[in-house]
């Protein structure tokens, strides 16, 4: 495709129209900025043209720089390109009015392009934003310098630091956009451009606007608040703070110097591990939906009616997902009392959303009306999908699957919400194992955005494809995993928990272990997570799966003791911590109990460094992740990363456990695992795949790439 086609030039009498054609999202790939510059120059040189309109072809305006290009720059394949800023400066300096017409989204470099134009009009449902922070960077084409000139320093800092989408109405109210166009966007934009040309005034350049920055003392105080909020919300992440720094420079420096300062910060961010991790996550979130061998041609089933068995915490949360997506759902419990309790919890959850202003009363009632509580299987013969969410016990699950096999319609998907159990064994309780699949939701199921979709050995492609699409329809990220104890997430999590508890027995305190992981960026420390999920849940899963622990291997001592003491975590007001409501209070009694039990078991107590805590918790997961990859239970290392970020509170700015290991260097990670293997043996046997990658100086990302090439 030639540059000219990427940006098509046409004339509408005295107005030149530049249309960007770079589907799917009109990213600023090589050729697009040049096409815009050439179009503007051509219009400027043509006496018959009085103004220019820049518009996106297809479904959107420009969604930003081409993110794929960043990887080429940081890996040294391509030189950093500073030409884009020069092009935008040329556009801004055009003597004829340039009007940008926005539909869909104007994001990142897209909004920067729009702000370099003299005026912006938008359709009412358009969105704008500077989401660069979500890629670990700052806007690098004038965004941090032009945005505060349009909407003030405080608002610009908040928009850049959060990366949130701004509605067209808010953009209009705050000065980012000049007019909303209700009818045809192009016609409206052309009319607006003509009006501007008719004034005879020189076009308004964003760089020259100096009266909107806001009161200095006020915005400085606001920025302090934004910085504090960033430090709390995204602990350890630099990009939000760097965004605020760059925006703050706008009123302090002449425009061109501001651009230079921005470019410097942009470069520093782009080459940071944080940015590499977040770009990996951006593409990973999209990659996980692509399953080798399953394509658009794979037939899908229509899911118009769902049914759930079990109205407990998980079942109720899953039912809410279906109701939220507008899919009618039957919810079955064994007796009326449990059913009423489950339904009351659902209503309470919705009411809490109403109180927070996230849901209207009317929507609450509509969603409740989509949920049909029942104590029988009546009507289940009409369900397109039946999801089992009963207690994590194989015998019980098999009994339930036997029952639903007898009543479900022939095409129905039979899904189990098991978090650890063998899907093939469950499927064996039916005469249609091809219809059986795991849909492992994460607690609280109405909130957590992940579903591990577990493929059994007989699961049909149609059932997999429908499940992946359904996850999207439920506004979740579905990641396909293979069958095996704990699948991907919980199998790795078990290693993480095991090391956390071993560290306690060897001399670390509960608070130290949790603080190290929390400060590193995890949403919660491992022991606090245990208390949230329920120590009883972990212990029961462990008891149900004792066969995967090799003979003679060390197991954690204290969890079982807490369970025996009835300390199940937050729900009983005590676990590893004591609780006042949800507030965790360190319990010296439990730290003393750990020392006593460990000493009795002959475990030596010592000072443990924070580095050792981090390494043992993290690398034990990475080692298991490498085994999962080699076994094919995880399709790609990026799938593991997305599972951890979406389901386990792993910080996105670390890229997920496998990417974090890549960034440390697999050789270093492997050496440390060998060190712990020398020290402890047992759980630390290095994964052969990790050894192989470390010895060939490769990364998990490269392994993904190689595997995809061979497929
Ligand atoms: C930036 O602009 C820096 C500047 O300051 C300039 C510095 C010099 N590049 O999400 P979807 C792909 S940084 C390359 O499924 P949707 C995406 O991977 C950028 N590719 O669609 C997918 O590919 P595939 C700031 C991109 O409708 C396909 O397009 N901008 C880009 O659900 C469809 O995407 C952003 O961060 C891109 N910029 O959502 C915006 N964007 O089909 C990032 C998308 O092979 N983009 N792709 O998997 C988005 O947020 C969403 O894509 C958007 C559409 C909301 C636009």
What's the SSE blueprint?
Layout: H1 3-6, E1 7-12, E2 15-20, H2 32-45, E3 51-56, H3 67-74, H4 83-92, E4 98-102, E5 105-107, H5 109-116, E6 119-122, E7 127-129, H6 143-151, H7 153-162, E8 166-167, H8 168-173, E9 179-180, H9 185-198, H10 216-233, H11 239-249, H12 255-270, H13 273-287, E10 306-309, H14 313-324, E11 329-332, H15 336-355, H16 361-370, E12 371-374, E13 385-388, H17 394-407, E14 413-416, H18 423-427, E15 436-441, E16 450-455, H19 461-473, E17 477-482, H20 489-506, H21 510-520, H22 526-533, H23 535-544, H24 558-564, E18 578-580, E19 583-585, H25 588-600, H26 610-631, H27 637-647, H28 657-664, H29 666-680, H30 688-695, H31 700-710
Parallel strand pairs: 2-3, 3-4, 4-6, 5-7, 6-9, 10-11, 10-13, 11-12, 13-14, 14-15, 16-17
Antiparallel strand pairs: 1-2, 7-8, 15-16, 18-19
Bound molecules: (S)-3-Hydroxyhexanoyl-CoA.
(S)-3-Hydroxyhexanoyl-CoA binds at residues 24-25, 27, 63-68, 84, 105, 107-109, 112, 131-132, 135, 139-141, 143, 286.
């Amino acid at each position: 495709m030639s540059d000219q086609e990427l940006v098509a030039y046409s004339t509408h009498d005295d107005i030149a129209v530049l249309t960007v054609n770079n589907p799917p999202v009109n990213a600023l790939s090589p050729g697009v900025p040049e096409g815009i510059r050439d179009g503007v120059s051509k219009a400027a040189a043509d006496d018959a043209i009085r103004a220019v309109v820049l518009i996106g072809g297809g479904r959107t305006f420009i969604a930003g720089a081409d993110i794929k290009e960043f990887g080429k720059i940081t890996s040294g394949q391509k030189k950093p390109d500073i030409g884009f800023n020069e092009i935008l400066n040329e556009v801004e300096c055009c003597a004829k009015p340039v009007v940008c017409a926005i539909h869909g989204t104007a994001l990142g470099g897209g909004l920067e392009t729009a702000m370099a134009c003299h005026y912006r009009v938008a359709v009412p449902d358009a969105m704008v934003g500077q989401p660069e922070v979500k890629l670990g960077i700052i806007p690098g084409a004038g965004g941090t310098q032009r945005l505060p000139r349009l909407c003030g320093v405080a608002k610009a800092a908040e928009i850049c630091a959060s990366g949130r989408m701004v509605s067209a109405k808010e953009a209009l109210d705050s000065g980012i956009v000049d007019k909303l166009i209700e009818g045809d966007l192009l016609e409206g934009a052309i009319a607006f451009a003509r009006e501007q040309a008719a004034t005879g005034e020189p076009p308004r350049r964003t760089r020259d606007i100096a009266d909107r920055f806001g009161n200095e003392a006020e915005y400085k105080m606001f920025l302090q608040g934004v910085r504090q909020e960033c430090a709390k919300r995204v602990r350890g992440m630099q990009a939000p703070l760097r965004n605020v720094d760059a925006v703050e420079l706008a009123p302090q420096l002449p425009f061109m110097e501001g651009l230079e300062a921005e470019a410097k910060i942009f470069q520093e961010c782009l080459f940071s591990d944080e940015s590499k991790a977040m770009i990996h996550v951006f593409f990973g979130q999209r990659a996980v939906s692509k399953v080798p061998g399953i394509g658009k041609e794979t037939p899908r089933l229509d899911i118009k009616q769902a049914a759930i068995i079990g109205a407990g915490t998980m079942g109720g949360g899953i039912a809410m997902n279906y109701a939220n997506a507008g899919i009618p759902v039957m919810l079955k419990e064994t007796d009326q009392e449990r059913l009423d309790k489950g339904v009351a919890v659902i209503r309470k959850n919705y009411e809490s959303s109403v109180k927070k202003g996230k849901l209207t009363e009317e929507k609450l009632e509509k969603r409740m009306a989509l949920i049909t509580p029942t104590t029988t299987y009546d009507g289940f013969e009409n369900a397109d999908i039946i999801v089992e969410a009963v207690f994590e016990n194989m015998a019980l699950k098999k009994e339930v699957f036997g029952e639903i096999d007898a009543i479900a319609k022939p095409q129905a998907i039979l899904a189990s919400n098991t978090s650890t159990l063998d899907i093939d064994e469950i499927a064996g309780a039916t005469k249609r194992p091809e219809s059986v699949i795991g849909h492992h939701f994460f607690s609280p199921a109405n909130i957590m955005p992940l579903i591990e979709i577990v493929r059994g050995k007989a699961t049909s492609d149609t059932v997999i494809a429908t499940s992946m699409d359904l996850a999207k329809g439920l506004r979740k990220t579905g990641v396909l995993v293979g069958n095996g104890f704990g699948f991907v997430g919980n199998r790795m999590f078990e290693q993480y928990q095991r090391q956390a508890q071993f560290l306690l027995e060897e001399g670390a305190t509960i608070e130290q272990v949790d603080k190290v992981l929390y400060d590193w960026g995890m949403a919660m420390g491992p022991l606090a997570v245990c208390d949230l999920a329920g120590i009883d849940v972990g212990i029961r899963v462990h008891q149900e799966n004792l066969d995967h622990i090799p003979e003679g291997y060390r197991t954690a001592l204290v969890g079982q003791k807490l369970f025996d003491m009835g300390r199940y975590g937050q729900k009983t007001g005590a676990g590893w911590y004591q609780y006042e409501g949800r507030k965790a209070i360190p319990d010296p009694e439990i730290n003393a109990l750990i020392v006593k039990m460990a000493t009795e078991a002959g475990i030596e107590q010592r000072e443990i460094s924070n580095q050792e805590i981090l390494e043992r918790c993290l690398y034990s997961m990475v080692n298991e992740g490498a085994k999962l990859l080699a076994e094919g239970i995880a399709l790609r290392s990026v799938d593991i990363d997305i599972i951890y970020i979406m389901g386990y509170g792993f910080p996105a700015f670390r890229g997920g456990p496998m990417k974090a290991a890549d960034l440390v260097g697999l050789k270093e990670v492997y050496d440390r695992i060998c060190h712990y293997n020398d020290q402890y043996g047992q759980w630390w046997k290095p994964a052969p795949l990790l050894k192989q990658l470390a010895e060939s100086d490769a990364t998990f990302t490269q392994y993904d790439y190689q595997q995809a090439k061979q497929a």
